[in-house]
Amino acid sequence: MIRINCPYCGERDHSEFSYGGDATINYPSLDASEKEWTEAIFFRKNIKGFQFETWHHSNGCRMWLVVERSTVTHEIKSVKPSHPDLQKIVENNK
Amino acid sequence: MKTRRIDNYGKINRDKILSFRWDKKNYKGFEGDTLASALLANNIGIVGRSFKYHRPRGIFSSGVEESGALVTIGSKDRRDPNVRATTQELYNGLEASGQNAFPNVNFDLAGINNYLGRFFAAGFYYKTFMGIPPLEWGKGTAIWMFFEKFIRKAAGMGSASGLPDPDTYEHAHDFCDLIVVGSGPAGVAAAIEAAEKKLDVILVEQDSLIGGNQLAENDFDNSQIKNQLENLGIKIMTRTTAFGLYDNCVVGLLERVTDHISASNVNIPRQRFWTIRAKHIIVGAGAIERHIAFNNNDIPGVMTVNASKHYLNRYGVLTGKRIVIATNNDSVYETAHQLSEAGANVTVLDSRTNFEIETNKSFEIRKGYVPYNINGSKKINSLDISKSVTINKSETINCDQVLLSGGWSPAVHLLSHRGVKPKWDYNNACFLPSDTKENITMVGSSRGLWNKNDCIASGIAGTTDALNRLGISKTNYFFPKPGGWKNPIQPLYEVKYKKSRSKSFVDYQHDVTTDDVRLAHREGFISVEHLKRYTTLGMANDQGKMGNIIGLSLMAELLNKEISEVGTTVFRPPYTPVSIGALSGRNVGKHFRPLRVTPMHQWNIDHGAKMIEVGLYQRPWYYPKENETLSDSYIREASTVRKTVGICDVTSLGKIAIQGPDSTEFLNRIYSNGFSKLQVGKARYGIMLRDDGIVMDDGTSWRLAENEYFMTTSTGEAAKVMSWLEELLQTRWTDLNVNVTSVSEQWAGVSIAGPKSREVLNNCVDDSLVITNNNLPFMGVTSTFLKGNIPCRIARISFSGELAFEVYVKSDFANTMMDLLWENAKKYDGCLYGLEALGALRVEKGHVTAAELDGRVTIDDAGLSKMASTKKSYIGSAMRKRGVLKNNDREILVGFFPTNLKETFNAGTIVCEKNNIKGQGIGRITSVTYSPELGHWIGIGFVKGGLDKWKDTTLVGADPVRNKQMNLKVVSPHMIDPKGERMYA
């Protein structure tokens, strides 16, 4: 079982969370072209090793988090709030 | 019958006699016995029949690796098949029976299979069910299907009761710094060292007693160890198996709470399924003694050497009188000495020629000898032995027992669960655990240490390793080197004996012989993973604990490779079987999944509702009067709504509060239709698309104030929409000042629909002026009060197509609201209506729900193109225009009538052209109902090209699953009041 250290709730089982997806995508603006959207939505890297991904603490504080996880070992290097302002607050409180 | 129990031996409690039944006869044993030791004491040699050949099988071991003594425990609904007699503790009244035999294990009619062995060789099933070569005659035919049933039955093991399980099971959770698996010398040393260093320790032992293999020693007493562990605050869990290791040091445990006692106490669970979250894991799971493959090595009376030591010193049972021990290593000599001291005549055959061992000469040692054939069928009469493995100079020894030790295999299973491959150690002829970066340390004989002092040293080193990895200490440590015998082991896996019908077993339970391994090799199944699946080697209950290495060595020999090059199969959880009951725990019956009810659930039931599950929700399905059927009831309810008024609980809809200065901008981005100009006091129907342009959900949003909205979603998508909105606000549009809150549980909702709905509501609100057509026009919203000063929100929204209102109150007021509305609706001959009538009303109007919006449908497919704004960009606006979603032959929403109006049809019917009824057709019917208004069956669904293309053509509805076919007419999905005059009334 993967254990995720939620910055708000502490270390919890992954069953409390829902997997989101690739956290590094910059979604294009709403009026961007079909081509830009196609690339953002459908093209994914298949990373072997550490990747940044979003997880939703859906059965907890309901915060969206960015988790740096190894796709090989499930080792987790870091967990941060997705929202940049909240990220700063968490950093400052450390 | 003579007993094999001897005085002055064993740790059983001879003052406490237990009666038990074996195959319908009564026997006696003692407290502290296992079923196996009690059977052996009672001189019962045959306890089962093998899987394919139905050969008599005895007790091979004294532990979890048992692959012969698999029995059925209990009766009726407590019948538990395939239990290892060697780990089943005896209790008073225990009922056990042999398996896989008719009429019984001593005389089994299917024993004939033994002589048909050539037909049941490896791959038997694969070959048989492929039909008869060369033309695969009969493949897939009824004849083979017919035979298959009997063949499968003949090869079963025990059978389940087929009745509901009367026992309860529990899930439990715990946390600790260190979990130690195994209470042998290494595990205990590790636990003590850790507890002294102030770690919070759990010690897990699968046996009922702590001590590990020391329990086989005649002078071992665990009471002092137990006291020491307890005084240090270590949590000791006996009768508990660590069946699997998982990510992040999570360990799965199965605790057998009542399997060792007779009385079933309803207040205690039978088993407990533990999830332990540790910071470090130490595995001291011991090692398992292997047998040796040679002809007839499965005759009852064959056992591992260590097992007979257990039976002698723990249970006071001398398992044989004239015992031959066959070995290739030093580990047997202490046992040989003790067996002869206990009165047995012992001969040791040691395959090695050149070695020194100290003994008191109480037994004979024959250096360089190996066993090659056992004579006997139901018991051992004699053993043929040979000097050297190429059989010559044979000799026969009379004996009643053959004990085997072909070396020891460290129990590396748990580490293997983590994907760590063991490495072959040539010197010790065994697989040793490899290192891992995870916080797992292997200690004791599970890292190949054969003597006690080394095991203890490794336990202390293991804890030091743990402390270092946890950052608590930085201490140097070293593990003793693997091994520890005075003389090296000589690899010995098989003694070949070429005689017709000779069977030399590798895997006892699945009847895998050395010939099967050779056959697999000849037929090309040379990878160990293929070998395993083709022969079923290692796939029995013991999962290859005893036989795997022998199989690997044979394959290595055939391939002319080293075992290290052949590799090993991966062990997967569970280490020993885990019952389905323990996995499900309390999540059975009505607790299988969470139950959601609306606050007026009981009110609905009290007023005659029959309920239906919608997702997790219980919703009113229909409200039958007297003898009404479902069909009678929903037709009456739907007609009443069209004629007068009906009331329907709609609380299960998702409800989300959207607040903040950017709320309007937010809604304008997520809905396909415009929201920027929605006025305060108005609601709007909206459709949300996914990023890829497909419809996600539909619902309404009500503007309650400048910066406050109340959103409703469909019942099924409520959770998904909430997560989606949170995702957008937290990950994508982080500059928007909007807050979303789920208020689904906080509000109770009801729909009042029908021409008399306003009159009913007039009598229920404090101030009837607020709901006049002027003050509350279609899609108007107001916050007001129901009589009794109950604050409420009312919106004029219609799903049924009639004049209708949705009224929401705080959940606490749900029953009061229902009483008030129902009392007044009755005055107008109104009704309560359920989901079935709601469905009928919406199908008549062509309104889509989850049946239509199935994740493949675009806004245009659903006929809602006018809901897609052209004046703004929104989620999915670019992608909904991509080529594949704009094809001319997309399936478009239409309505269907049966051409013959007396006919019916079902949802799921495939729509085809008349002369081309095949495959997926050109469309499908998604929802159907009887229309009370039209007086016949109607449906909505999708067809390629839509109404314009097919309105004058008769199509065919094919329903092959229900063996139905009917002609169809394609009509507009808006079958009633297409202009919507009624809802604007």
Summarize the structure.
The complex is a heterodimer of chains A (94) and B (985). Helix content of chain A is 20%, strand content 35%.
Q: What general outline of chain A do the C-alpha atoms trace?
A: globular
Could you say what the CATH architecture of the domain at 1-163 in chain B is? Roll
Look at the helices and sheets of chain A and give the structural class: alpha+beta
Multimer state: heterodimer
CATH fold topology of the domain at 1-163 in chain B: Ubiquitin-like (UB roll)
Helix content of chain A: 10-25%
Main sheet characteristics of chain A: 4 strands, antiparallel
Biggest sheet layout of chain B: 7 strands, mixed
Explained architecture:
The complex is a heterodimer of chains A (94) and B (985). Helix content of chain A is 20%, strand content 35%. Chain A is α+β, with helices and mostly antiparallel strands and 94 residues long. Chain A has one domain (3-24, 42-93): Folate-binding fold (2-Layer Sandwich). In chain A, a hairpin with a 5-residue loop joins strand 5 (64-70) and strand 6. Chain A starts with a strand and ends with a helix. Among the domains of chain B are: 1-163, Roll (Ubiquitin-like (UB roll)); 601-652 and 746-840, 2-Layer Sandwich (Gyrase A, domain 2); 655-742, Aminomethyltransferase beta-barrel domains (Alpha-Beta Plaits, 2-Layer Sandwich); 887-985, Elongation Factor Tu (Ef-tu), domain 3. Chain B contains 22 helices and 47 strands. In chain B, the strands form twelve sheets. In chain B, strands 8, 9, 10, 11, 12, 13 and 26 form a seven-stranded mixed β-sheet that branches. In chain B, helix 4 (185-196) runs parallel beside helix 9, helix 10 crosses helix 12 (548-559) and helix 16 (630-643) crosses helix 21 (835-845). The longest helix of chain B is centred in the middle third of the chain and has 18 residues, at 452-469. Chain B is elongated and about 115 Å long. The termini of chain B are far apart. Chains A and B meet through helix 1 and helix 2 of A and helix 18 of B.
